[in-house]
Amino acid sequence: MKKNITKYLLITFGALFIFIIYLSLIGIETDKFNEKIKNKLSQNNYQLDIQLKKIKLTLDLLNFKVNAKTIGTKLIYKKKIIELESIKTKISLNSFIVNKFVSSNLVVSTRSVLLKDLVRLTRAVTNRTELFFLEKLIEKGYVIIDLELNFDENGKIKKDYKVKGLLKDGKINLLNNQNFENVNFLLNIKNDTFNFNQIEFTNNNIDFFSNNIKIKKNKKEIFVEGNIENKKSKLNNKLLNLIRLNSENINFEDIKFSSNNNFSFNLNNKFKLKNLIIISDVLVDESKYIKPNLLNDYFYEVKDAIYLKDHKINATYKDNNLSFKGSGKIQLEKEFDEIDYSISKIGDKINFDSNIKLSELKVKNQRNTKKFFPEIKKVINLKDHQVNIKYKDNNLSFKGSGKIQLEKEFDEIDYSISKIGDKINFVTNLILKKTSFKIENINYKKDDNSRLQLSASGNYVKTKGLELDKLEIIAKDDKIKLKKLLIDRYKKIIKFDEINLNYLDIENKKNQFLVKRKEKNNYELNGSILNANSLITDLLKSKDDKHSKIFRNNLNLNLNLAEVYIDDKNIVKNLNGNFYIENNKIHQANISALFNNNESLKFTVNTSNGEKVTTLFSSRAKPLVKRYSFIKGYEEGYLDFYSSKFNNNSKSKLKIYNFKLKELPVLTKILTLASLQGIADLLSGEGIRFDELEMNFKNNGNTMTIDELYAIGPAISILMSGYVDQNKLISLEEH
Description:
Elements: H1 2-25, E1 28-30, H2 34-44, E2 48-51, E3 55-60, E4 65-71, E5 74-77, E6 80-92, H3 93-98, E7 103-110, E8 113-114, H4 115-126, H5 129-137, E9 138-150, E10 162-173, E11 179-190, E12 193-203, E13 206-218, E14 221-235, H6 237-242, E15 252-267, E16 273-290, E17 305-318, E18 321-331, E19 336-346, E20 349-364, E21 379-392, E22 395-405, E23 410-420, E24 423-432, E25 438-439, E26 444-445, E27 452-461, E28 465-475, E29 478-488, E30 493-495, E31 498-504, E32 510-519, E33 522-531, H7 533-541, E34 555-565, E35 571-582, E36 585-594, E37 600-608, E38 611-618, H8 622-625, E39 635-646, E40 649-661, E41 688-700, E42 703-712, E43 717-725, E44 730-734
Parallel strand pairs: 33-34
Antiparallel strand pairs: 1-3, 2-5, 3-4, 4-6, 5-6, 6-7, 7-9, 8-9, 9-10, 10-11, 11-12, 12-13, 13-14, 14-15, 15-16, 16-17, 17-18, 18-19, 19-20, 20-21, 21-22, 22-23, 23-24, 24-27, 25-26, 27-28, 28-29, 29-30, 29-31, 31-32, 32-33, 34-35, 35-36, 36-37, 37-38, 38-39, 39-40, 40-41, 41-42, 42-43, ...
Helix pairs in contact: 4-5
């Protein structure tokens, strides 16, 4: 009996053992749990359905669970079918004892399915916000996914789900119609973190790839970070718009570049992008910048497109602000030059700081330079210049140094120019060696073989004029200095503080004097010596026209000069007096000086009630008379002149005593000697002495009418009348 019981027990345990081994190694197939699985899925989402084939069960005795697996399953969500490769789950053995289905784990492997359908299904099962975000972005693509879900004791899905997958030929519409096509990547999702690896995609015909992009849910936002690279692609405006870089002030075209970009940003529940950060290393093989029209006014041969090549750039984009630093080559004319730069874009404001090594640049010659550089070319050549350019808060500045060619030879120059609002500030130093330089107003010209240094600083405002803070010209023993000169927009002098001159003029005469403003429009001219030869010539031949209107305000000038040349030989000493200039005309004057032997020179102007009376007396007439080319051989004599002018009509009397002429061919030319209107006639002859010449004449506009001219001498006396037109028409009648 005992043997039979033992036999039956052994057979039973043996059969049970074999059955357990069979269940563990081979398992059985059943559809017993199909309805329970369907009901379980519908508990999470009533729109979710499943078509199951038989389930294969295998025993996991160590974990006291049953492994269940089925293949060829179809998931149906809102009439969309997703074909699965397999479904695996682990069922507690307690489920069989209490006849209740409880799964602790579910692993789903799909076949190649549409990405959008799979994301929609996964979101329905997990109810994850980030999956809703993905669903909205995806347009197309095929994916193979392995999904692993864990359940708690009550059958609820835990948050430690895992997803692994592969995407092929995807298309994602990110933001602002930015389409990402040909998207391929490996996907790994764990808890709240999405990892995308081995990513490839195309945006605006540019192929990009990435090692990793990570998406992580953070409270109410989604955080995205990753890396993107591209190789030798052509940049277009759509990609610039993506990072808000496109601007009217940035006129780049045909940018061929490679880049390595690290980025991060946040998305809120409304999918609004914020906190975008991009850090990039960019290599620009070539590009071109469309030249602003402003440059055409200054540069001669700069091309319409400025070419760039071999540029290495480090860029950072954060909080809608862009900054980047770079270096490379730039082509303004024929040759490529080295350039480095730092650019920042804060909102709509662009700041720029750049250093450039210019091998050569041609600049258009601006107006008025020929007055000072008589041999200057139409095009100024710059060579070997180191230039710093800054643009900040709509203010532009240039600083540089190098060589400059105004004529045949190159000279040295350094400069600083800044534009702040409407004001242009400048500081420049120019060293001239072979280049010619002159200042006609003071009869100065640089010696051809001397070295001249010119320094100037000041500012210019188009609506106000020029403010010259300092001007210094130094060459050998010559020094010309000016302080605080103001010139209005109509090129009239408002004021100056000081003019200090110590130089040798073109007549090889020394000039040393100082003009200084004392208060308001009161000035003093003090000096040891002044060559007034050319000044007197200009005064005698000057016309009362707009070109002589150089002062905006009336001014008073006191004179005190030790010595003054009135021609190339004659000197007066102790020249003292005063000028009062009103409306650019001498209104009052009282000047006196002495020749040697106490001979005198005196000049006066008195204006009262509209009448202007001018007198000139000189014990030596020759320094004044000889300036007229039609007077030949004038010697000796003294001059006395009187003129009264009212309403542009003048009456004048000129007397010259005790003189002689060496030549007297015909009586057809009259000397107009007045320093203001013309004062005299000269008849030419050959060695004829005259005791006295007196001329009474009137001026009206361009015509001088000679009422009477007579010359009395030991050998001959002459009496004449007639007129002289300013246009060189002469009519004389001898009596």
